[in-house]
Amino acid sequence: MVALTSIDRALVVDLASLDRAALPVAGGKAANLGELLAAGLPVPGGFCVTTAAYRLATADTATAAAGTDPAAARAQVLTAPVPAAVAAAVRGAYAALGDDVPVAVRSSATAEDLPESSFAGQQDTYLNVVGADAVVDSVRRCWASLFTDRAVAYRATAGVDPAGVAIAVVVQRMVDAAAAGVMFTADPLTGSRSRTVLDAAPGLGESVVSGAVDPDHVVADPRGRVLDYHVGRAGTAVRAVAGGGTVRVPHGAERGRCLTDAQVKELVALGERAQAHFGAPQDLEWAIDAAGGAWLTQSRPITTLFPLPEPVEAGHVYFCISLAQGLVRPMTPMGIAAARRIATAAVAGMTGRPPADPDVGPRGLVVAGGRPFADVTTPLRTAPGRVLLPRILDVMEARSAVVLRELLDGDGDPAHLLGAPAGRRSWLPFLRGVARIAVRFRVPPRMLVALVRPRSALAHVQRVRARVAPLCVVDPALAPGDHLRRAERLLDSVFPILPTVAPVAGAGFVGLGLARLLARGDLPAADVHEVLRSLPHNVTTEMDLRLWALAATLRDDPASVAALRDREPAALAAAFGRGELPGRLQGGLGAFLTEHGHRAAAEIDVGAPRWSDDPAPVLAVLAGYLRLPVEERPGTAPDVQFARGARAAEAALARVVTLVRRRSRVRAALVGFGLRRARALAGLREEHKDLLVRLLAAVRAHLGHVGADLAGRGLLAVADDVHLLDLAETAAALGGVDQRDLVARRRADHDRELRRRHV
């Protein structure tokens, strides 16, 4: 066999000569096996038939095969003769293993087992292959499996260029396994790095990988201590047959455990060594031979694991901030940069101690998978934090509240669980801190005014809106550097503005809390829901109703109806940009976007397009509204439903007050007061977010001018690429730094996170 120094030209190489650098010629599987061998881990010996052999064998067919349907491509590869040089190299390497040694022949594609994606199971495996002729034939079949329907489809989904894909083949000594399976050095479902998960079955591991068996499921800690062992039910074991091939043997549930505690401990230790060597959690395949020895037959990264925040501290708890706003997808780098800047202003405003660098943000604000996280360990080390934080999350992000409670309830000592000594038990320091912040932002007087004079509070909100409006005006004549500085100042101004309106909505919830406290059983949760239906002054509801009103005006305009009925939203959006929509639709949409064009999906991300950038989503909603059968079913109209909800809320309010009055007229008056204030003010809970999004839209507009300048100077490919930079990198670009390569890397990272299926 050939040494690594000539691997690029070699047809066959020893597995022990490979490392990660050999991926282009040996594929992911073979390269990783070479790494395991280099780390001294138990791996069956063998060799790799390189991509050079594949290219030589398919020189006349591979290019044509890549452009045809998968079945035709497979047929071309299977019918092409294996070149004499390749066959001789394979035969020689196989003979070096011994006389008619049983081997496993498995594909090792160059797009396989990459850090960002796993192509496990997409190509074929042949077990217990005996004899040189059979090995050569299995190698050819592995080549052909590069073009199975599932492999072609998977590569297309993963965005892998088919022209750059080649395949190597691993040939290894077979382990005549008494038991085999897979092992994850981190829990792939929960993401816990402190658990190793094993699936085990009798016989060869193929039964586990293929799903032919219900395996034993084992959970262990990093020291190999078994935390849970579930014995699998009846299934089918795959076993080697003397002379070559495999047979499937049914087995019953009475077989008992596949692994002893000692074997679990040994496998976990091997997994920990593999993880340490690769520097990341691993998905391994393993086997226990007849003598009880453990072997590793494959290792690849667990690509479904959500990445840890950077930097991360052990024993800390991190909460995804963007998830609290309903944003599951990753944010752009500029969106995260904006969040850091806003968080800096918030910390400075609340504590009077601004972080050192506004572009880095406060300590404890970290990023993982393109999503901002806050370190909530410090509040969880206090009694108030352990009580209040889950309740706050009940409102903001209920799923996270469930996880947090499980985390705290899963150990009798939460402080120990968080890797810290016991936290403060007194509420007094917390209450003092809250009082200082409340006084600094005049929260008590604003809430009191809102409760006593709701109209004055609503007028105050209107004044804040009027103050924000000129901040959102973007002068295109500004120099690019001035646009960037204006964007930064807007981000710095967000937090000081928001606390001026949030207390008004807060007063509404104070009224609701007062009513629930006094009404007790006469105000059940179902009636709370009824009382809060169709709240006035909700900017999101008002926006939806305005869009419905626009749809209603378009119903008697045949040209607008035809356009919305017959054309795709994207085409309509392009026509709107050119001013080519039917007159009523063009004018009505333009007026709507003037007021609400700052909104969008993922709108808390500065890098996300606004409706004013791309009105296709709005046009899709308009088209849907026009399809509503309001003539046959008038009750389906949104404005009718809103009015019906408001009447139901008033009826529920009156019913609760009547029930309470039976016990106390004074208490009934107070309950009525609280519920009426809740209805008058709680709808403003969306106001602070709307103001935030208006300011972010203005920031985006300023950055758009910066991006256009950088694209015009050749420092970015297109203007929107500015959102794949942060503020400091944008400033560097304005100074002349070419950021196109950085943007390309960021785009690849962002696109990969957008494809993440398990968050």
Automatic annotation (TrEMBL):
Top-rank taxon, per record: Bacteria
SUPFAM superfamilies, sorted: Glutathione synthetase ATP-binding domain-like
The Pyruvate phosphate dikinase AMP/ATP-binding domain, residue ranges: 25-304
Listed name of the protein: PEP/pyruvate-binding domain-containing protein
